[in-house]
Amino acid sequence: MPPHFVPARSGVHRIACLALYRSLVRRSSQLQIGEHQQYALRQLVKNVFLKNRKFQSPSKIVEALNLGYQSLETLQHVSSKPVQLVAKLVDSLTGPNALCKEENPKCGHKYRPSGEATKSRKTTSFAPIVWPRPDTPLVLSRPFQSTSGKRHIPKLVNTNGIPHLRFKKPQSPFLSRVIRDKIRQREKRFDRLQLLKAEIPMARAEDEWDSILKQTCGIDDDSSVLWIRAPVSALQEVRAKIQASHSKNTMLGRQMYKIVEMEKALAEIEQGNVGSGNMPGFVDHEALSAGCVRQSKVL
C-alpha cells in the first residue's frame, strides 16, 4: 500500500511549520524598527499561518512553506539595511488595512462568555481530506521490476462496482475517500435521472396545452421550441455519463486483473530463483504482459 500524507497527523510536518513560524516571529522582533511595527509584522505572520493551517493539498503546502522560507530570507536580508528603509517596507506590508483586521476575525479579541463560546462551536466532525504523497507511484504502473523484500500479490476487490487493488489492511484513507466520492457522484446522477424522468410527463402536458391554445385561440408563441426537448436532452446526457463511468470502471478492472496476473507470475519466477539459489534476474515485462493478456482472453 503506498504511503499517504495527512498533515494533521504528521509530527514531522508540525515540527517544520512551528520551527518556521518561530523563526519568522524571532526575526521580526530583531528588526531595528518601532515596537508597534514589530507587533504588526508578527501579527501578519500569525494571520498567514492561521489562514493556511487547514491546507490538505501537498502542492499548496509546499507552496506555502516555500513562501515562508523566502520571507525569512527577505527579513534576514533587510536586517542590514537602513532603519528608514526597513520601516517603510514593514509599513507597506502591514499598513492601515492590515491582514489581522480584515481576514482574521480572531485578532479582534472580543469577550465572550464560556457558555456562548461552547454553543457557537461546531460539533460535527468530518473525515479529513487526504491526498497521496507527490512521489507515490501510480497503481497502473505496476508491477515493479524489483522489490526490496518479498513481493506481495494484491487482491482485486469490487466495492459497489468500483474496482481497486488491496495490498494489505488497513485500507488507505486516500483510497477510501476516492471510493466515497465516486459513490456519491453516482448517487447524484441516479437521483437526477429519476428527477428528469418525472419532469418528462409535465413537459409533454405543456406541449399539449400549447397546441390546444394554438388551435382554439390562435396563440402561437414559438412552435419550434418544445418543452420536452430540455428534459430529454438532459436525460440523455446523464445516461451517457453513467454509461461512460461504467465503461471506465470495466476497463480499469481489466487492467487491474492484468496487474494481479503479472504479479503472480513474477512472484513465481522470483520464488523459483530463490529456491534454486540464484538471485532474481531481469524479467521481460512486455513478454510477460503479452502472456497474461492471452491468458485473460482464454479465460
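The above is record 1. Record 2 follows with the same two-line structure.
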Amino acid sequence: MLAKIGLPFLLLATLAICDPEGHRWRHPLSTDRRSPCPGINALANHGYLPRNGLNVSLEQFITGIAEGLNFDTEFTIAAVDVYKNFTTTGYKNTLNLDDLDHHGIPGEHDGSLSRNDAYFGDNHSFNKTIFNTVAAHFHGKTISIPDAARARKDRFAAAKAVNPQFMPSDLSSMGETALYLRSMRGQDKETKTRYVHILFREERIPFDEGYKISNVPISNEELGGIIKEMVAAS
C-alpha cells in the first residue's frame, strides 16, 4: 500500500519541480559571494552564474544573464563594464559578485527597493522592512507601471529623508524598477506580483510557479521605454 501511495506522490513531486535542468535553485553557502542585486543573486543561486560568486568573467555574465533572464549582450556589457575598475579579483576581466557593493556606481544607489543605503553600514543584505514598504504599493495580482513608479518614488523620498549623505540617482533608481518589471514579466503581458516577491525575498527565479523566460532578448531600448512610461506616470 505504501509503495502504491508513494510512487504517484514522488511522480507529482518531480513534476512540480520546474527549474530548467542543471539550474535547480540552491541556497548560497556561507562562503559563497553575492551582490546587492536580487536578479544577479538569483542567477547565481540557479547556477547560471558561478554558484560561489567568485571570479566571474564578462563571458560568464553574458551567457548566464542571457540564459537565465534573456537580457541581450549589449545590456550586459554596459552593465558589467562600469565595475571593472573596482574588482577585487586582481584582474579587470573578472569580478566577485560582492564587488557590486561598491557605492555610487550605476546599479548600486541610495534608495534601493530592497537594501539600505551605504551610509547605514549595510547596502548589501536584503532588508525585509524596506521591501515591505515598497510591496505595500502592490495591491493586485499584477504590478502596473504607475504602481511601480509610485513605489519607487516613495521609497526614494523615504531614503532621502533619513540619510544626510543621500546621493540621488533617479536614473539608477528607475532602472532598478524597469529591470524587475521587465524581467519578471517574462512571456506574460503583465508582471505578476507573486513573481516579484519571489525574486526579491528568495532571490529565486519563479520557474516552479510557472514563470517563463522572455522569448525575445530584453534590450536597453526596451528598458528605456519602460523608464519613459514611469516618468510619465510619476
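The longest helix spans residues 145-162.
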